[in-house]
Design brief:
By secondary structure, this protein is α+β, with helices and mostly antiparallel strands. The chain folds into 3 domains: 26-120; 125-260, Serine Threonine Protein Phosphatase 5, Tetratricopeptide repeat (Alpha Horseshoe); 288-520, Jelly Rolls (Sandwich). Helices cover 45% and strands 14% of the residues. The protein has 16 helices and 18 strands. Helix 10 runs antiparallel to helix 11 (222-235) and helix 11 (222-235) packs antiparallel against helix 12 (242-259). The longest helix has 48 residues, at 26-73. Keywords: Dioxygenase, Endoplasmic reticulum, Glycoprotein, Iron, Metal-binding, Oxidoreductase, TPR repeat, Vitamin C. Catalyzes the post-translational formation of 4-hydroxyproline in -Xaa-Pro-Gly- sequences in collagens and other proteins.
């Protein structure tokens, strides 16, 4: 029984350890799945060896139990037989030493060795923290309560996965340590709810109530904080902080009541804490609510009048010889700024080849620092990316040529093809692709001017989430495998079009693959001549 329990604990550890690595690229996480499978096989072999060892020890124990039962009932009579005397000497001198060697054998060596080999590829504490934050990011963006995650109630999922009381507690504790009391309340409340329903856990209820009551207090809900602290005192009267906190909370509430000219406290709200119970604190992103609403498909400003201005057509790239026989299918996605989608921009074979080339080089995606022009990681962009040159493979050269044919713009001065993989929770918050006037050095090192246009290939469908949204104009564009979207970042005058501020919404379910081609100003002088007015 103890070995089975050990195996179960190890398997549960691995499941949740890898399950929580949401922020990593899905393609790299698949390697961890096979690593885990190998470790489980190694664990089973260890258990089998331990069981064989225990069976051998049990056999010794049973034999010696019967023997000692007979010998201790009449020691002198037993030893009167010379064979018994000899065998006692032999057992104590030889056989017990053999048993000692058997007990000292450690069948775990193979398992520990296998663990050591793979440990270098394991995610670290920062990865786990990032994965937990990804869950909270999804929770906020798509307005999903903690129970939806805990019970695996997500749209489009093929495999169910649940979070235990201990998992919810760890989520809440991480938020608490980050001074994020809003999410701490949501996850501690979920841990308490599951425990009250009878779920077993190693976490003590007193610990959950301790974190929850103080987080609720920080959210400004004194009556509920008092009620939760009273529950804590009832469970653990000797709790180090509970008594003092209760006295402090009650004093604060009395002071508030006196200030409002009231003498009696209102009863605490008995309704369960939900997403809308407390207001989520504002953060650094002014358009957060608009951006997240668009990600949910809400607030899209696609009016009937605007829709009537959208058309589809065949695009031959101004009679490009490569498009004459098979022109590109082009659809309008938005009228102003003009955003178009090209159908069948990439074949399945090309997509697989691009992914194959990118996978070995995927690393945390970077953004160009607007002050220095140096590429650096940023918390608002969570994905893995790689850069591919035309010389890497004929497929990349062919894709680059196709982009030039379709857009009529030169790609000689464009940036390399950037391939990005957004795993669950992966996102890129609202940003501009072009550099603003206060960022004169953003692309200085390239010597090719500003980013005049963006060509974005969708290389996968996404089960839920992952839209490209434009908060300033209320547009949302959903990924469709094999298609590409294109827009100009600059007016013909060279001025930036601030309406093109856009974002990659968090992936809720699935894996999102894209490839970007940022086309620069240099080389476009005769392909897209300057306009006479600022907004031409």
């Amino acid at each position: 029984f103890s070995l089975c329990w050990l195996a179960l604990k190890v398997l549960v550890f691995f499941f949740f350890f890898f399950f929580l690595q949401y922020a990593n690229a899905i393609c790299q996480m698949t390697d961890l799945i096979f690593t885990e499978r190998e470790l489980v096989q190694s664990l089973k072999e260890y258990i089998e060896a331990e069981e064989m060892k225990l069976e051998a020890v049990k056999s010794w124990a049973n034999k010696l139990d019967m023997l000692t039962h007979a010998s201790t009932s009449d020691p002198e009579g037993f030893l009167a037989h010379p064979v018994n005397a000899y065998k006692l000497m032999k057992r104590l001198n030889t056989e017990w030493s053999e048993l000692e060697s058997l007990v000292l054998q450690d069948p775990s060596d193979g398992f520990i060795s296998n663990m050591s080999v793979h440990r270098q590829y394991f995610p670290d504490e920062e990865d786990e923290k990032g994965a937990a934050k990804a869950l909270m990011r999804l929770q906020d963006t798509y307005k999903l309560d903690s129970e939806s995650f805990s019970k695996g109630k997500l749209p489009g999922v093929r495999y169910n996965a649940e979070l235990t009381v201990d998992d919810c507690f760890d989520m809440g504790k991480l938020a608490y340590n980050e001074i994020d009391y809003y999410h701490s309340v949501l996850w501690m409340q979920q841990a308490l709810r599951q425990m009250d329903l009878g779920e077993d856990a190693k976490t003590a209820k007193a610990d959950i109530l301790d974190y929850l009551s103080y987080s609720v207090y920080q959210m400004g809900d004194l009556p509920r904080a008092i009620e939760l602290t009273r529950r804590l005192v009832a469970i653990d009267p000797s709790h180090q902080r509970a008594g003092a906190n209760l006295h402090y909370f009650e004093q604060l509430l009395s002071k508030e009541l006196r200030a409002r000219g009231r003498s009696q406290q209102e009863p605490a709200d008995e309704r369960p804490i939900q997403l809308d119970t407390y207001e989520r604190p504002k953060d650094y992103l002014p358009e957060r609510e608009v951006y997240e609403a668009l990600c949910r498909g809400e607030g899209v400003k696609m009016t009937q009048k605007r829709r009537s201005r959208l058309f589809c057509r065949y695009q031959d790239g101004n009679r490009s010889p490569r498009l004459l026989l098979k022109p590109m299918k082009e659809e309008d996605e938005w009228d102003s700024p003009h955003i178009v989608r090209f159908l069948e921009a990439l074949s399945d074979e090309e997509i697989e080849k691009i992914k194959e080339l990118a996978k070995p080089n995927l690393a945390r995606a970077t953004v160009r620092d607007p002050k220095t022009g140096v590429l650096t990681v940023a918390h608002y962009r969570v994905s893995k990316s790689a850069w591919l040159e035309g010389e890497d493979d004929p497929v990349i050269a062919r894709v680059n040529q196709r982009i030039e044919d379709i857009t009529g713009l030169s790609v000689d001065t464009a940036e390399l093809l950037q391939v990005a993989n957004y795993g669950v929770g992966g996102q890129y918050e609202p940003h501009y692709d072009f550099s603003r006037k206060d960022e004169p050095d953003a692309f200085k090192s390239l010597g090719t001017g500003n980013r005049v246009a963006t060509f974005l290939n969708y290389m996968s469908d996404v089960e839920a989430g992952g839209a490209t949204v434009f908060p300033d104009i209320g547009a949302a564009i959903w990924p469709r495998k094999g298609t590409a979207v294109f827009w100009y970042n600059l007016f013909k005058s060279g001025e930036g079009d601030y309406r093109t501020r856009h974002a990659a919404c968090p992936v809720l379910v699935g894996s999102k693959w894209v490839s970007n081609k940022w086309i620069h100003e240099r080389g476009q002088e005769f392909r897209r001549p300057c306009g006479l007015t600022e907004v031409d």
